[in-house]
Amino acid sequence: MTPNQMSEAANAFWSAWQLGAAIDHLLPADRPTTRAEGYAIQAMLEGRSDKPIAGWKIAATSAAGQQHINVSGPLAGRLMAERVHPDGSAFSMKGNRMAVTEAEFVFRMARDMPPRAKAYSVEEALAAVGDLCLGIEVPNSRFADFVTAGEALIIADNACAHEFVLGPTVPVTWRDLDLAAHRVNATVAGTARSYERDGIGANVLGDPRIALAWLANELSQLGITLRAGQIVTTGTCVVPLEIVAGDSVQVDFGVLGTVSARFTA
Fold first, then answer.
1. Do the strands 258-264 and 248-252 form a parallel or antiparallel pair, or are they unpaired?
2. Residue 125 has what pLDDT?
3. What are the residues whose beta carbons fall under 8 Å from the beta carbon of 217, sequence distance 6 or more?
4. Residues with Cβ < 8 Å from 170, sequence gap 6 or more?
5. Cα–Cα 20 to 30 A to 218, which of 82, 122, 152, 194?
6. Closest by CA position to 225, among listed 234, 216, 233
7. What are the sequence ranges of the domains in the chain?
8. pLDDT, tens digit, for every residue of 94-133?
9. Which helix (DSSP H) or strand (DSSP E) does residue 64 occupy?
């Protein structure tokens, strides 16, 4: 793709995102066919915001998440600062085609992790972390049919980033906890029905800490620094929760705390 073609594709994604509209198709010339082209288009979305990005998300870190968007492995996306909201926030379901929420462990970085030739270890990634937080992601796609879009297009579509709830900083000493074995309970309460779903940290690439290191290395290969102050939300540890207008979602991380969100028409 030429830079102009990438810019046209980025314009289409950004416009659809701001309007809550769906993209039925893109011209063949505006469709990325590789991960590199997808990430190049995604990077252009960052420049269309008037704020520095808040951090990064990782899509498809669980088998359920990969099945939901029909990809074979994890993908990185940018968290736009204007799309990060406090605990308990309410969101409109208008234009939300994915109609799910995800319960996630979130790391806040204390030190930069710049690009380098050698892969970062999990231990190195954790050493660069300042805090562990709790989060709820509300993903969405700009594609009317996101299931068949394919990996390159999903990356260009900012890895289905949409809205994000940044919950409380974990109040306990978390570094000695086994996050892979940590149990999570999510409750969806609505006007017509309610349900619960349990999950575990191991659903996130085997361990949320492994997911963090994956993200640092994915960015490193792209020549991007994971910066101090940025957050990394590591992917859903509970099978994505189906939501409709009128639902409220609460995720209980046990001793680590709770985080919630509400959904309106």
1. antiparallel
2. 98
3. 119, 120
4. 131, 132, 133, 134, 253, 256, 257
5. 82
6. 216
7. 52-264
8. 999 999 999 999 999 999 999 999 999 999 999 999 999 9
9. helix 63-69
Least Cα distance to 211 among 131, 147, 125, 134 occurs for: 125
Which one-letter DSSP state was computed for residue 51? S
Report the distance separating Cα 214 and Cα 249, nearest Å.
28
Angle, helices 3-19 vs 35-46, to 10°: value is 60
Residue 246: what pLDDT?
Answer: 97
Helix (H) or strand (E) holding 130: strand 129-138
Q: How many other C-beta atoms are found inside a 10 Å radius of the C-beta of residue 129?
A: 18
Taking the mean position of all CA atoms in its chain, how far away is CA 183? 20
Q: Where are the alpha helices (DSSP H) in 83-241?
A: 122-127, 151-156, 208-221
Contact 68, 140 (CB under 8 A): no
- Looking at residue 26, its pLDDT comes to 82
Scored b (16 or more CB within 10 A) or e, 222-236 reads eebebbeebbbbbbb
CA distances from 6 to 32, 73, 219 (A): 8, 23, 20
How confident is the model at residue 177, as a pLDDT? 96
Residue 137: closest CA among 184, 177, 105: 105
Q: Tokens at residue 257, please?
A: 């705390």
Q: What is the pTM of this model?
A: 0.96
Give per-residue pLDDT as tens, 146-163.
Answer: 888 889 999 999 999 999
Residue 185 structure tokens: 């309970």
Look up the CATH number of domain 52-264.
3.90.850.10
Residues 133 and 253: their CA atoms lie apart, in Å, by 10
Under a CB-based contact definition with an 8 Å cutoff, are residues 58 and 232 in contact? yes
Distant-in-sequence, close-in-space partners of 52: CB < 8 Å, separation ≥ 6: 81
